Records
---
Amino acid sequence: MISVSISIDVPNMADGMKFYSSAFGFSKVAEPIPGIVVLRSGEARICLLERVPGSYPSPYTQETRRYERHWTPIHVDIHVDDFEATLARVIAAGGRQEKFFEANSEHGSVAFCSDPFGHGFCLIERRNK
Protein backbone atom coordinates (compact mmCIF):
# COMPACT_ATOMS: atom_id res chain seq x y z
CA MET A 1 0.00 0.00 0.00
CA ILE A 2 1.17 3.52 -0.75
CA SER A 3 -0.08 6.96 0.06
CA VAL A 4 0.73 10.20 -1.72
CA SER A 5 0.95 13.64 -0.22
CA ILE A 6 1.37 16.98 -1.94
CA SER A 7 3.86 19.59 -0.74
CA ILE A 8 3.69 23.14 -2.05
CA ASP A 9 6.47 25.72 -1.73
CA VAL A 10 5.24 29.20 -0.81
CA PRO A 11 7.30 32.36 -0.27
CA ASN A 12 5.27 33.39 2.80
CA MET A 13 3.44 30.95 5.08
CA ALA A 14 0.69 33.38 6.08
CA ASP A 15 -0.13 34.10 2.43
CA GLY A 16 -0.05 30.39 1.55
CA MET A 17 -2.37 29.46 4.39
CA LYS A 18 -4.72 32.32 3.52
CA PHE A 19 -5.03 31.25 -0.14
CA TYR A 20 -5.52 27.52 0.44
CA SER A 21 -7.91 28.12 3.35
CA SER A 22 -10.01 30.70 1.51
CA ALA A 23 -10.08 28.90 -1.83
CA PHE A 24 -10.52 25.29 -0.70
CA GLY A 25 -11.40 25.28 2.99
CA PHE A 26 -8.10 23.84 4.22
CA SER A 27 -7.31 24.30 7.91
CA LYS A 28 -4.08 23.75 9.82
CA VAL A 29 -3.74 20.37 11.52
CA ALA A 30 -0.01 20.37 12.30
CA GLU A 31 3.11 22.50 12.29
CA PRO A 32 5.94 19.99 12.78
CA ILE A 33 8.64 22.67 12.63
CA PRO A 34 8.64 26.39 11.81
CA GLY A 35 8.14 26.91 8.09
CA ILE A 36 6.20 23.68 7.54
CA VAL A 37 2.42 23.46 7.98
CA VAL A 38 0.09 20.55 7.26
CA LEU A 39 -3.42 21.52 6.11
CA ARG A 40 -6.52 19.37 5.74
CA SER A 41 -9.84 19.74 3.92
CA GLY A 42 -12.05 16.67 4.11
CA GLU A 43 -9.82 13.69 3.30
CA ALA A 44 -7.26 15.83 1.41
CA ARG A 45 -4.02 16.94 3.04
CA ILE A 46 -1.35 19.26 1.73
CA CYS A 47 1.89 20.44 3.23
CA LEU A 48 2.99 24.05 2.77
CA LEU A 49 6.73 24.69 2.87
CA GLU A 50 7.90 28.26 3.35
CA ARG A 51 10.86 28.70 1.00
CA VAL A 52 12.68 31.89 0.15
CA PRO A 53 12.50 33.12 -3.46
CA GLY A 54 15.88 32.66 -5.14
CA SER A 55 16.88 29.68 -2.97
CA TYR A 56 18.10 26.47 -4.57
CA PRO A 57 15.68 23.52 -4.41
CA SER A 58 18.49 20.99 -4.96
CA PRO A 59 22.29 20.90 -5.02
CA TYR A 60 21.97 19.33 -8.51
CA THR A 61 20.44 22.32 -10.30
CA GLN A 62 21.25 25.93 -10.95
CA GLU A 63 17.56 26.81 -11.07
CA THR A 64 16.23 28.79 -8.16
CA ARG A 65 12.78 29.07 -6.65
CA ARG A 66 10.62 31.72 -8.25
CA TYR A 67 7.02 32.53 -7.58
CA GLU A 68 5.86 34.25 -10.73
CA ARG A 69 3.84 32.00 -13.05
CA HIS A 70 5.94 29.03 -14.11
CA TRP A 71 5.44 25.72 -15.87
CA THR A 72 6.06 22.33 -14.34
CA PRO A 73 5.32 18.90 -15.82
CA ILE A 74 3.48 17.83 -12.65
CA HIS A 75 0.49 19.64 -11.26
CA VAL A 76 -2.35 19.07 -8.79
CA ASP A 77 -5.91 18.26 -9.91
CA ILE A 78 -8.51 19.39 -7.39
CA HIS A 79 -11.89 17.66 -7.81
CA VAL A 80 -14.85 19.54 -6.32
CA ASP A 81 -18.61 19.13 -6.10
CA ASP A 82 -19.47 22.84 -6.30
CA PHE A 83 -17.31 23.90 -9.23
CA GLU A 84 -18.64 27.43 -9.75
CA ALA A 85 -18.46 28.40 -6.07
CA THR A 86 -14.96 26.96 -5.71
CA LEU A 87 -13.71 28.73 -8.84
CA ALA A 88 -15.13 32.00 -7.50
CA ARG A 89 -13.29 31.45 -4.20
CA VAL A 90 -10.04 30.65 -6.03
CA ILE A 91 -10.25 33.94 -7.94
CA ALA A 92 -11.34 35.96 -4.88
CA ALA A 93 -8.41 34.53 -2.90
CA GLY A 94 -5.89 35.69 -5.53
CA GLY A 95 -5.75 32.71 -7.88
CA ARG A 96 -6.15 33.01 -11.64
CA GLN A 97 -8.27 31.13 -14.15
CA GLU A 98 -6.17 30.63 -17.29
CA LYS A 99 -8.32 28.31 -19.44
CA PHE A 100 -11.85 26.99 -19.14
CA PHE A 101 -13.59 23.97 -20.60
CA GLU A 102 -17.38 23.92 -20.29
CA ALA A 103 -19.10 20.73 -19.09
CA ASN A 104 -20.54 18.41 -21.68
CA SER A 105 -22.97 15.53 -21.26
CA GLU A 106 -20.20 13.16 -20.18
CA HIS A 107 -17.70 15.25 -18.22
CA GLY A 108 -17.78 18.15 -15.78
CA SER A 109 -16.20 21.53 -16.35
CA VAL A 110 -12.46 22.05 -15.96
CA ALA A 111 -10.57 25.27 -15.22
CA PHE A 112 -6.81 25.47 -15.65
CA CYS A 113 -5.73 27.81 -12.85
CA SER A 114 -2.71 29.08 -10.95
CA ASP A 115 -2.30 30.04 -7.32
CA PRO A 116 -0.81 33.41 -6.29
CA PHE A 117 2.62 31.72 -6.10
CA GLY A 118 2.77 30.70 -9.77
CA HIS A 119 1.84 27.03 -9.31
CA GLY A 120 -0.58 25.64 -11.88
CA PHE A 121 -3.47 23.36 -10.95
CA CYS A 122 -6.68 22.08 -12.53
CA LEU A 123 -10.04 22.60 -10.89
CA ILE A 124 -12.27 19.72 -11.99
CA GLU A 125 -16.02 19.47 -11.52
CA ARG A 126 -16.94 16.16 -9.89
CA ARG A 127 -19.89 14.52 -11.58
CA ASN A 128 -21.85 11.83 -9.75
CA LYS A 129 -22.57 8.96 -12.12
Note: The longest helix spans residues 13-24.
---
Amino acid sequence: MKTNMIRTVIGVVALGIALPVLAHHSGGMFDDKKEITVSGTVREFQYTNPHSWLLVDVTGDDGKVTTWGFETEGPSTLTRAGIRKSDFTPGTPITITANPMRDGRPAGTWSRAIRTSDNKEFSPRGGFVVK
Protein backbone atom coordinates (compact mmCIF):
# COMPACT_ATOMS: atom_id res chain seq x y z
CA MET A 1 0.00 0.00 0.00
CA LYS A 2 2.77 2.41 0.95
CA THR A 3 4.65 1.58 -2.28
CA ASN A 4 1.57 2.36 -4.38
CA MET A 5 1.16 5.72 -2.63
CA ILE A 6 4.81 6.62 -3.28
CA ARG A 7 4.46 5.65 -6.95
CA THR A 8 1.31 7.75 -7.26
CA VAL A 9 3.00 10.79 -5.70
CA ILE A 10 6.03 10.39 -7.99
CA GLY A 11 3.74 10.06 -11.01
CA VAL A 12 1.75 13.18 -10.11
CA VAL A 13 4.95 15.20 -9.56
CA ALA A 14 6.44 13.99 -12.87
CA LEU A 15 3.25 14.85 -14.73
CA GLY A 16 3.14 18.27 -13.07
CA ILE A 17 6.65 18.97 -14.32
CA ALA A 18 6.13 17.55 -17.83
CA LEU A 19 2.87 19.28 -18.77
CA PRO A 20 4.13 22.89 -18.60
CA VAL A 21 7.19 21.92 -20.65
CA LEU A 22 5.05 20.30 -23.32
CA ALA A 23 2.63 23.21 -23.35
CA HIS A 24 5.42 25.76 -23.74
CA HIS A 25 7.01 24.02 -26.70
CA SER A 26 3.82 22.98 -28.41
CA GLY A 27 2.66 24.81 -31.51
CA GLY A 28 -0.50 22.71 -31.53
CA MET A 29 -2.74 25.72 -30.98
CA PHE A 30 -1.83 27.04 -34.44
CA ASP A 31 -3.19 25.53 -37.67
CA ASP A 32 -0.09 25.05 -39.82
CA LYS A 33 -2.24 23.94 -42.77
CA LYS A 34 -3.97 27.34 -43.06
CA GLU A 35 -2.73 30.87 -43.61
CA ILE A 36 -4.48 34.15 -42.99
CA THR A 37 -3.42 37.63 -44.09
CA VAL A 38 -4.57 40.81 -42.35
CA SER A 39 -3.65 44.46 -42.66
CA GLY A 40 -3.52 46.93 -39.82
CA THR A 41 -1.26 49.08 -37.68
CA VAL A 42 1.23 47.95 -35.09
CA ARG A 43 -0.04 48.43 -31.57
CA GLU A 44 3.02 46.99 -29.81
CA PHE A 45 6.04 44.80 -30.52
CA GLN A 46 6.90 42.72 -27.46
CA TYR A 47 10.51 41.87 -28.39
CA THR A 48 11.10 39.38 -25.58
CA ASN A 49 12.32 35.88 -24.75
CA PRO A 50 11.42 33.15 -25.20
CA HIS A 51 8.85 34.30 -27.79
CA SER A 52 8.11 37.75 -29.14
CA TRP A 53 4.62 39.00 -29.95
CA LEU A 54 3.59 41.55 -32.56
CA LEU A 55 0.22 43.10 -31.68
CA VAL A 56 -1.64 44.57 -34.65
CA ASP A 57 -4.87 46.59 -34.63
CA VAL A 58 -7.03 45.47 -37.55
CA THR A 59 -10.15 47.39 -38.59
CA GLY A 60 -12.96 45.15 -39.84
CA ASP A 61 -15.49 45.93 -42.56
CA ASP A 62 -17.89 47.02 -39.81
CA GLY A 63 -15.36 49.60 -38.53
CA LYS A 64 -14.66 47.62 -35.36
CA VAL A 65 -10.96 47.39 -34.36
CA THR A 66 -9.68 44.00 -33.22
CA THR A 67 -6.19 43.54 -31.80
CA TRP A 68 -4.50 40.50 -33.31
CA GLY A 69 -1.49 38.83 -31.66
CA PHE A 70 1.24 37.20 -33.74
CA GLU A 71 3.73 34.96 -31.96
CA THR A 72 7.26 34.73 -33.29
CA GLU A 73 10.80 33.91 -32.26
CA GLY A 74 12.89 35.52 -29.54
CA PRO A 75 15.17 38.53 -30.14
CA SER A 76 18.33 36.57 -31.05
CA THR A 77 16.58 34.68 -33.88
CA LEU A 78 14.78 37.83 -35.02
CA THR A 79 18.09 39.72 -35.11
CA ARG A 80 19.62 37.00 -37.31
CA ALA A 81 16.57 37.40 -39.58
CA GLY A 82 17.26 41.14 -39.76
CA ILE A 83 14.25 42.12 -37.64
CA ARG A 84 14.74 44.76 -34.96
CA LYS A 85 12.22 46.12 -32.51
CA SER A 86 12.54 49.52 -34.21
CA ASP A 87 11.22 48.02 -37.48
CA PHE A 88 7.71 47.87 -36.02
CA THR A 89 7.01 50.91 -33.88
CA PRO A 90 3.43 51.66 -32.78
CA GLY A 91 1.38 53.04 -35.65
CA THR A 92 3.40 51.30 -38.40
CA PRO A 93 1.01 50.07 -41.11
CA ILE A 94 1.65 46.43 -42.09
CA THR A 95 0.18 43.42 -43.83
CA ILE A 96 0.96 40.18 -42.00
CA THR A 97 0.54 36.53 -42.96
CA ALA A 98 0.32 33.86 -40.27
CA ASN A 99 -0.89 30.40 -39.36
CA PRO A 100 -4.06 31.15 -37.36
CA MET A 101 -5.20 29.83 -34.01
CA ARG A 102 -7.23 26.64 -34.35
CA ASP A 103 -9.96 27.98 -32.06
CA GLY A 104 -10.60 31.11 -34.15
CA ARG A 105 -9.19 33.67 -31.72
CA PRO A 106 -7.50 36.67 -33.42
CA ALA A 107 -3.93 35.37 -33.22
CA GLY A 108 -1.43 33.30 -35.13
CA THR A 109 2.19 32.45 -35.64
CA TRP A 110 3.94 35.05 -37.81
CA SER A 111 5.13 33.78 -41.22
CA ARG A 112 5.90 37.06 -42.99
CA ALA A 113 5.01 40.72 -42.76
CA ILE A 114 5.24 43.59 -45.22
CA ARG A 115 5.76 47.09 -43.89
CA THR A 116 3.46 49.25 -46.01
CA SER A 117 5.63 52.37 -46.01
CA ASP A 118 8.47 50.77 -48.00
CA ASN A 119 7.11 47.34 -49.04
CA LYS A 120 9.92 45.66 -47.08
CA GLU A 121 9.22 42.02 -46.23
CA PHE A 122 10.17 40.52 -42.87
CA SER A 123 10.33 36.75 -42.29
CA PRO A 124 11.24 35.61 -38.77
CA ARG A 125 12.02 32.10 -40.00
CA GLY A 126 15.02 33.54 -41.86
CA GLY A 127 16.76 33.65 -38.48
CA PHE A 128 17.12 29.87 -38.59
CA VAL A 129 19.05 29.88 -41.87
CA VAL A 130 22.71 28.95 -41.45
CA LYS A 131 24.95 31.24 -43.49
Note: The CA atoms of residues 32 and 99 lie 5 Å apart.
---
Amino acid sequence: MQMAFYIFIFFATFWFMEFMAWFTHKYVMHGLLWILHKDHHQHEPGFFEKNDAFFLIFAIPSWLFTMFGMMNGNDFRLFIGLGILAYGIVYFLVHDVLIHRRFKWFDNIKSPYFRALRKAHKIHHKHLGKEHGEVFGMLIVPKKYHQEALKTQKP
Protein backbone atom coordinates (compact mmCIF):
# COMPACT_ATOMS: atom_id res chain seq x y z
CA MET A 1 0.00 0.00 0.00
CA GLN A 2 2.86 2.34 0.79
CA MET A 3 4.35 1.81 -2.70
CA ALA A 4 1.01 2.75 -4.29
CA PHE A 5 1.08 5.97 -2.26
CA TYR A 6 4.64 6.68 -3.41
CA ILE A 7 3.68 6.06 -7.03
CA PHE A 8 0.75 8.44 -6.59
CA ILE A 9 3.13 11.06 -5.09
CA PHE A 10 5.47 10.63 -8.06
CA PHE A 11 2.74 11.18 -10.69
CA ALA A 12 1.00 13.94 -8.71
CA THR A 13 4.33 15.78 -8.45
CA PHE A 14 5.00 15.30 -12.16
CA TRP A 15 1.65 16.88 -13.11
CA PHE A 16 1.96 19.57 -10.44
CA MET A 17 5.20 20.57 -12.17
CA GLU A 18 3.22 21.34 -15.32
CA PHE A 19 1.30 23.93 -13.29
CA MET A 20 4.56 25.18 -11.75
CA ALA A 21 6.13 25.48 -15.21
CA TRP A 22 3.10 27.46 -16.44
CA PHE A 23 3.05 29.71 -13.36
CA THR A 24 6.81 30.27 -13.34
CA HIS A 25 6.89 30.92 -17.07
CA LYS A 26 4.01 33.40 -17.02
CA TYR A 27 4.71 35.28 -13.79
CA VAL A 28 8.43 34.84 -13.07
CA MET A 29 10.15 34.36 -16.44
CA HIS A 30 7.96 36.98 -18.09
CA GLY A 31 8.08 39.08 -14.93
CA LEU A 32 10.78 39.55 -12.32
CA LEU A 33 13.35 37.26 -14.01
CA TRP A 34 12.79 38.43 -17.58
CA ILE A 35 16.48 39.36 -17.58
CA LEU A 36 17.26 35.62 -17.63
CA HIS A 37 14.46 34.61 -20.01
CA LYS A 38 14.77 37.44 -22.56
CA ASP A 39 17.50 35.75 -24.62
CA HIS A 40 15.19 32.80 -25.15
CA HIS A 41 12.77 35.06 -27.06
CA GLN A 42 15.36 37.42 -28.54
CA HIS A 43 18.13 35.07 -29.62
CA GLU A 44 21.73 36.03 -29.08
CA PRO A 45 24.76 34.24 -30.56
CA GLY A 46 25.96 31.05 -28.86
CA PHE A 47 24.61 27.68 -27.83
CA PHE A 48 23.83 28.50 -24.20
CA GLU A 49 21.27 31.05 -23.03
CA LYS A 50 20.86 32.86 -19.72
CA ASN A 51 17.48 31.13 -19.75
CA ASP A 52 19.31 27.84 -19.13
CA ALA A 53 19.76 28.99 -15.51
CA PHE A 54 16.17 27.90 -14.91
CA PHE A 55 17.45 24.33 -15.19
CA LEU A 56 19.24 24.90 -11.86
CA ILE A 57 16.27 26.68 -10.33
CA PHE A 58 14.19 23.53 -10.84
CA ALA A 59 17.02 21.00 -10.36
CA ILE A 60 17.88 22.18 -6.84
CA PRO A 61 14.51 21.30 -5.27
CA SER A 62 14.58 17.95 -7.09
CA TRP A 63 18.01 17.19 -5.70
CA LEU A 64 17.08 18.30 -2.17
CA PHE A 65 13.86 16.26 -2.06
CA THR A 66 15.69 13.23 -3.46
CA MET A 67 18.59 13.58 -1.03
CA PHE A 68 16.45 14.13 2.07
CA GLY A 69 14.09 11.35 1.01
CA MET A 70 16.98 8.92 0.68
CA MET A 71 18.50 10.08 3.98
CA ASN A 72 15.19 9.25 5.69
CA GLY A 73 14.70 5.70 4.48
CA ASN A 74 13.39 6.46 0.98
CA ASP A 75 10.31 8.25 2.28
CA PHE A 76 7.80 10.29 0.27
CA ARG A 77 10.31 13.10 -0.35
CA LEU A 78 12.31 10.81 -2.60
CA PHE A 79 9.28 10.38 -4.86
CA ILE A 80 8.63 14.12 -4.93
CA GLY A 81 12.24 14.62 -6.03
CA LEU A 82 11.93 11.89 -8.65
CA GLY A 83 8.67 13.41 -9.94
CA ILE A 84 10.39 16.78 -10.38
CA LEU A 85 13.33 15.04 -12.06
CA ALA A 86 11.04 13.14 -14.45
CA TYR A 87 9.27 16.37 -15.41
CA GLY A 88 12.64 18.04 -15.96
CA ILE A 89 13.74 15.24 -18.30
CA VAL A 90 10.48 15.42 -20.25
CA TYR A 91 10.69 19.22 -20.34
CA PHE A 92 14.23 19.03 -21.75
CA LEU A 93 13.25 16.46 -24.38
CA VAL A 94 10.11 18.32 -25.44
CA HIS A 95 11.28 21.93 -25.15
CA ASP A 96 14.95 21.85 -26.05
CA VAL A 97 15.09 18.81 -28.33
CA LEU A 98 11.69 18.55 -30.04
CA ILE A 99 10.55 22.18 -30.16
CA HIS A 100 13.72 24.29 -30.33
CA ARG A 101 15.86 21.60 -31.97
CA ARG A 102 18.96 22.38 -29.88
CA PHE A 103 19.80 18.72 -30.40
CA LYS A 104 18.77 17.00 -33.63
CA TRP A 105 17.58 13.74 -32.06
CA PHE A 106 13.95 13.42 -33.20
CA ASP A 107 13.69 14.40 -36.84
CA ASN A 108 10.63 12.52 -38.06
CA ILE A 109 7.97 12.86 -35.39
CA LYS A 110 4.58 13.14 -37.07
CA SER A 111 2.32 12.90 -34.00
CA PRO A 112 -0.58 15.38 -34.04
CA TYR A 113 0.02 16.02 -30.33
CA PHE A 114 3.63 17.05 -30.93
CA ARG A 115 2.65 19.17 -33.93
CA ALA A 116 0.05 20.92 -31.75
CA LEU A 117 2.64 21.41 -29.03
CA ARG A 118 5.17 22.91 -31.46
CA LYS A 119 2.52 25.24 -32.92
CA ALA A 120 1.43 26.44 -29.47
CA HIS A 121 5.03 27.14 -28.53
CA LYS A 122 5.62 28.95 -31.81
CA ILE A 123 2.63 31.18 -31.04
CA HIS A 124 4.17 31.89 -27.64
CA HIS A 125 7.47 32.91 -29.25
CA LYS A 126 5.91 35.31 -31.75
CA HIS A 127 5.88 37.79 -28.85
CA LEU A 128 9.35 39.20 -28.29
CA GLY A 129 8.58 41.26 -25.19
CA LYS A 130 7.76 40.16 -21.69
CA GLU A 131 4.36 41.87 -21.47
CA HIS A 132 2.52 39.91 -24.11
CA GLY A 133 2.17 36.26 -24.72
CA GLU A 134 -0.04 33.23 -24.63
CA VAL A 135 0.37 29.49 -24.12
CA PHE A 136 2.74 29.43 -21.16
CA GLY A 137 2.45 25.72 -20.33
CA MET A 138 4.49 22.91 -21.79
CA LEU A 139 2.65 19.59 -21.98
CA ILE A 140 -0.98 20.71 -21.82
CA VAL A 141 -1.82 22.29 -25.15
CA PRO A 142 -4.99 24.33 -25.80
CA LYS A 143 -7.65 22.41 -27.71
CA LYS A 144 -7.55 24.69 -30.76
CA TYR A 145 -3.97 23.61 -31.54
CA HIS A 146 -4.95 19.94 -31.30
CA GLN A 147 -7.83 20.54 -33.71
CA GLU A 148 -5.52 22.38 -36.11
CA ALA A 149 -2.98 19.54 -36.02
CA LEU A 150 -5.67 16.94 -36.69
CA LYS A 151 -7.01 18.92 -39.66
CA THR A 152 -3.58 19.10 -41.28
CA GLN A 153 -2.65 15.49 -40.55
CA LYS A 154 -1.76 13.51 -43.64
CA PRO A 155 -3.42 10.07 -43.92
Note: The chain has a mean pLDDT of 86.
